[in-house]
Amino acid sequence: MSGNRGNEASASGVPAMGRWALAAAVTGLVLALWLELRPVNAVVVYCAQDQVYAEQVFRLAEKEMGIRVLPVYDSEAVKTVGLANRLLAERDRPRADLFWGNEELRARQMAAREIFLSANGLAFFGDRTRCLVVNTQLWRGMRSGVSLMDLTNSTWRGKVAIAYPQFGTTAAHFHALRQHWGDAAWTTWCRNLAANRPIIVDGNSVVVQMVASGEAHIGLTDSDDVVAGLREGRPIAALPLPGETLHIPNSVGLVRGGPHPEAARRLSQFLCDPRVASMLVESGALNGVAPDPNLPGLAPGWDRILTELDATTAELNRIFLR
User: Fold this and answer.
1) Which of 52, 78, 193, 253 could form a disulfide with 116 if both were Cys (CB 3.0 to 4.6 A apart)?
2) Contact (CB, 8 A) for 48 and 74
3) Got the DSSP string for 74-132?
């Protein structure tokens, strides 16, 4: 007997190829039903807050609210930028419900691009700051007051550590400084800093590690990373930057068109509860629940910074990428 085996009939009278088509259709139907019937109390969170700090908050939210939190974290090297780009790429078919950021620039950028709901879609809470970190074993006898301008002095040649200024809070700080100092002064400072052979590393926590080990003598970092280093017993100290620091809140954005809007709104309200900020202060992720009025900082005009975002980033690439 010859012929195409795919056309042979089964005992039920259904051709073999028909059975495959039927199975595929049933599988597709089951998958579609599963997508529709996912628990409405699940929340997909794109989270730029450090995982070690965020996990305790998510566990408490699940316990108290009866929701399931499905976090997606970023990496230290590209802090926030990677998740922001992912949200922008998914804007026509969002996979995330909520964005929890640990700085303001990218949250403002996504709000301007209408990634978040227009009504009550973006909120901020808590505070940490940009600061200098020094190795206390190498700092003896040196003056305590150091400004950002001093980092270009020959004294610090090859001894200054910074994170890549295209990413995370370092990027936000550099963009705000350009607005504060003006284009010419900012560009001169950046070029002089790059010429002073800084040690450029993947993230602010690595800056602290480099300073603690003595590979760098001074670094530009975030206050929470200094707190973490001190808790580990590292020989470091923070130097404030009055007038040149950047206050850094956490941000919470409700993604427009996210798959679980009601559960996302509930989690957003939970994250903005002062209890959460207090938890993060206790763990060292934040300085306080609100900015310290005794530490004056930069006052960025975010609309202008966003307008110049691409141009400033391109200039940073030209100066600091080797």
Assistant:
1) 253
2) yes
3) --STTTTHHHHHHHHHTTTS---SEEEESSSHHHHHHHHTT-B-TTT-EEEEEEEEEEE
In the chain the domains, ranked by start, together with CATH numbers, are 42-127+249-294 (3.40.190.10), 129-246+312-320 (3.40.190.10)
Q: What H or E segment, with its residue span, contains residue 35? A: helix 16-36
Amino acid making up residue 226: V
C-alpha distances out from residue 188 to 181, 192, 219, 220, 315, Å: 10, 6, 19, 18, 12
**Residue for token pair 């089951």:** 30
Computed over every residue of the chain, the mean pLDDT equals: 87
Tokens of 135: 């190795």
Cα-to-chain-centroid distance, residue 311: 21
CA atoms within 13 A on the CB side of 14: 8
Residue % of the chain over a pLDDT of 90: 75
